[in-house]
Every structure is written in C-alpha cells, then in structure tokens.
Amino acid sequence: MALVPILAALLLSSVGTVSVAVPPAPAPLVVPEPPRSGAPPATTWLVERHPGWEQFSNGLRIETNLAVRTQPRLYRPLSQNPAPGAPLGFRTEPAGIVFHASEGPLASFEPEQTGLLKRQGLGLLAYARRHRLYHYVVDRFGRVHRLVEETDVADHAGQSVWADADAVYVNLNTSFLGVAFEARTSPGAETTLSSAQIHSGKVLTEMLRHRYGIPAENCVTHAQVSVNPLNFRIGYHSDWARELPFSALGLPDNYLQPPPSVYLFGFAYERAFFEAAGASLRAGLLRSEEEVRQAAAARSLSPARWRAELNHRYRQAVSQVKTERAALEKLAAREELHP
Ligand SMILES: [Zn+2]
Asked: In this predicted model, what pLDDT tens digit does every residue of 192-234 receive, in sequence order?
C-alpha cells in the first residue's frame, strides 16, 4: 500500500483540519527538563543482509526469519504548548522505543537448563509473533529477533502517553517501536537480564537511535507510559517499573523523567504502583505531582479541579487520535480497492 496517496488525501481531507477545542490556558505548561541525553549514538550501519539475518557494524545481529508486515506506520503527534492539542504533521518514522518484559516463566540460567530455556524462548516468539506484540524480542541468550517490520505498527503499548520537547504522543503503538526482553519484572520476581541480553539491547538501541534519530529521552519503559483511562491511573501495565539498566543500554536514567500522563493529562497512580517502582521512577512521579500542584496554584485552582481539566484534555486528544486513525484505515482500505 502506497503511503503517499494516503498522505495527500489526508492532507486534503477534513480530518487534516480537525481542531481541538482546548480551553485557553493562562500560561504554557512548564515541561520539566529531561535528564542529560549523553553522547549521541555511534554511527551504525547495515554490513550484510542474508535470508534469515542481518549484521550491523556495531556487532548487532538480527534474526529476520519471523518478521511479518502489519499496517504501515503513519501518525500525527500533538503539539506540546501552550496545551497539548493541535495535531502536527504526518510522520512515518518511529519517535521512540518502549522497552517491555515478557513476564513469562523463566528457567534458571545454567547449562543443565538449556533445553527448557530454548523451549521457553520459542514459545514466547510464537506467541508474540501471532499477536504482533513487539518489533523485537531479545531472548535469554541475547539473540535479537525481529517479529514486526520496523516500518509497521506493533500492538505493544496499548493506551499510553509520552511527550518530548516538541510533541505529545498518545497511544504509542503507531509512533514508538516495541522492544521486549525475555525477562520478569513483576513485583516479587527476581529481575534477571543476562549479560548477553544487556549487550544486545545496547547495540539494538544504538542502531535504532542512529537509524531514526531517536532522542535518548524517548527510550522509556512500558510502566512509564501505560495508562488506564477508565480510572485515570497510570501503570496499567507495569513491566520495568524498576531496574531497567538504562546506563548499560547507553541511555540516561530516564526513570527520572516525570511521566507526561500525570502533568499533561492529570493521571494519578495507585500506592501499590508507587511502591513497586524503583527509586528513580518514584522521584519522577513526585516531580510530576509537583508539576500538577504548581500549575494548579498558578491558575488559582485546586489540584483536583486542575486534574479534571487535564483529564478532559486527554479525552479530547484520544478522540482526535481515534478519528484520524479511523479515517486513515478507511483511506487505506479504499487504496487497496483502487490501487
Ligand atoms: Zn509491556
């Protein structure tokens, strides 16, 4: 399916001019400074492509036999200031990476368990591929498997929110890549990443950041972005609420970033989520709460009243994203009927 005609049609369609009736804000929201981004990713390039695998200059090898196509990535982020709302231009390249944990059963990592380790890995790959869950899975032995093509959408992030200095992203399946480690991070579980997984995660992140110009602050965990709109709580999915080794992946400690779902859209969190979070994410959560308090005070509103306004903005943003998505799918279907 060609994207260009769809883009052109969209730009001409009324969908492209949908406006969001955002209540006027007295002052721009103050977006906290992200942690220092550190050095940009090293230049990384494809060295060889063969049926079944690709080799990159930084040592990354990707197994490609399982990769499938879904729908091409096409999305419009929302503008950041003075309030999240106005749609920006269409984009086809990923804006960030969401890291996941598979949270399935894990045999102990020792030679006697090799058979079971392999069976568990194959089971995960089959399940994740069938459901188009992630772009990449890094198995216990550090092998990187592409399950969904990078150009396409994977069903990894569900209801979710993130933002950077330029844009707000709502429901990240269409805008972020999904990278899953075969690992467990649920409360009570012993978080285990093998050194091979950490190394592969680092070179994979480096390649993807270099290829798409992804800023370091847009490489975050599912727990940081996941929201539940039914009760306006964050952390509906809580994988990697703690202990993702950001530094070993060549990234700053992005847990320290205040979740945009809280300070832009008024989401709250359960005590249990706060307690399950690591120290850095707790600091990020407290900073986001403080942002809400300060913004409410600047408007002479109670935090609860301000949160309600932010919740309203979220509903408008989601409705806008859904309208555009539906229009895109309609256009894509028309395109397939009349190529
Ligand atoms: Zn996840």
From this structure: 799 999 999 999 999 999 999 999 999 999 999 999 999 999 9
Instruction: Render pLDDT for 298-334 as a digit per residue (tens, 0 to 9).
Output: 999 999 999 999 999 999 999 988 888 888 778 777 7
Residue the block writes with tokens 């490609």: 64
Tell me, in angstroms, the distance from the centre of ligand 1 to residue 239's CA: 5
Ligand 1 centroid–CA 158 distance in Å is 9
| Backbone φ and ψ of 219, nearest 5° | -105, 100
Q: How far is the CA of 102 from the centre of ligand 1 (A)?
A: 7
Cβ 99 vs Cβ 181: under 8 Å: yes
Q: Tell me the CA–centroid distance for residue 176 and ligand 1, in Å.
A: 12
pTM of the model: 0.88
Q: Residue 306 is which amino acid?
A: W
- What is the domain-level CATH number for residue 69? 3.40.80.10
Find all residues with CB under 8 Å of 96, minimum gap 6, and list them.
Answer: 162, 164, 169, 172, 175, 176, 177, 214, 215, 218, 219, 220
| 117 domain-assigned | yes
What does the block give as tokens for 240?
Answer: 């990697």
Q: 248: helix, coil or strand?
A: helix
Is residue 227 a contact partner of residue 119, using CB atoms and an 8 Å limit? no
User: Which range marks the domain in which residue 172 is found?
Assistant: 41-253
